[in-house]
UniProtKB/TrEMBL annotation, chain A:
Keywords: Electron transport, Iron, Metal-binding, Transport. PROSITE patterns: RUBREDOXIN, RUBREDOXIN_LIKE. Pathway: Hydrocarbon metabolism; alkane degradation. GO terms for biological process: alkane catabolic process. The lineage of its organism: Bacteria, Pseudomonadati, Pseudomonadota, Betaproteobacteria, Burkholderiales. Fe cation binds at residues 6, 9, 39, 42. It comes from the Bacteria. Residues 1-52 form the Rubredoxin-like domain. One of its GO terms (molecular function) is iron ion binding. This is Rubredoxin. Pfam families: Rubredoxin (PF00301). Its cofactor is Fe(3+).
Amino acid sequence: MKQWMCGPCGLIYDEALGLPEHGLPPGTKFEDIPDDWECPDCGVTKADFYLIPD
Amino acid sequence: MSQTDTTALLASIASLVKTELAPLASAIDQEGVYPADFLHKLGALGGFSAAIPKEYGGAELGLNTQIDITTAVGRECGSTAFLTWCQSTCAWYLLHSPNETVKQRYLPLVAQGKLLAGTGMSNTVKHLAGIEKIHLTATREGNDYVVSGSLPWVSNIGKDHLAIVAASVGEEGYIMFAIRGDSEGLALNPCPEFSGLEGTQTLNMRFRNVRISTDDVLAKPDQFKSFISRIKPGFVLGQLGIGFGIIEGSLKTIRESNITTAHVNIYLDEQETDLATRLESLRKEVSNLAPQAENGTARILDILRARANGSEATLAAAQSALLHAGAKGYLMRHPAQRRLREAVFVAIVTPALKHLRKEIHDLEQHANVEAA
């Protein structure tokens, strides 16, 4: 399970936790999120997220 | 410009700030109270229009007076000083637009505070400095543009506000345009909670195929480069007023703290006289640069250096105020902790201190190459 960070606003998407309140159950891999998904806090797309190294 | 007019305007604004803004400062910062009523009253007095000619509803007293007004507001409330800067800077953009239609449509309303306005140029300014990618893209459709994308945080906006932002038009370059908050396809979403300045009505702007009429465009792609060069010095310099106000407020806290604990405060590194001297020196520098920003002769490197010095002086003053106040300054009801958060805002709002240092470095490197 990996963590991804939104470039503009710093939101962390943790694959283990998902974002259930935004329709992403725990365990949802970043690659399985639809491409038109938007950061719930700032509205940018997946392309603006960066993988956080372990 | 009449000195009597300037003195009278500043006196009436100081009085309004004291009676109607100072009591709200903490609620604006922490509870998200947006001071719309104060902003309208400030606008009616001429609080956003000092650098605007009379033919567009301005007071025509100069950019220095506008910075003094922002300082007067910031003496009591950094959040509202920031809003004052947002509003007066939107008027500044409109004033310098080559599009007379957009200028006539919005400038008098914005300058007089009848139409409140936010500037969403942070992303573009950072993009142009090579810091991040641009978030709004536009495609041309006839004479109009269709814009999509998202701007994470834009302040002083709302459904009944105006915002001025920019978008990339692919190979053509960029456009800068005005947009009403209730435009079709534009969503204004709340942001996560900030550590301060909660009452600045800072929202996330999401554009989905928003149509922009050519009449709302401040600069088309072929005008954009010269337009940005024209407005940037005033945009950056105007922010110094926020810092000056916070420094003055911090000096007041230091004086108050010294009433009871001067005997121990004298051991601190940054004393009131040191900070006051630093403020005076910065003021002189800005006072010389403001007329240059107005007539289009300012060197951007001088402006960026002054802004960076302003950030550093504001941080130093606010930290010193907290250290002078001691433990009681850590209470939420004490202004010292608010001043510290406001000072940090001055150092992180675009252009942030790290951005300024990068841009200054890049310009100095370029100058060295040219000289070699």
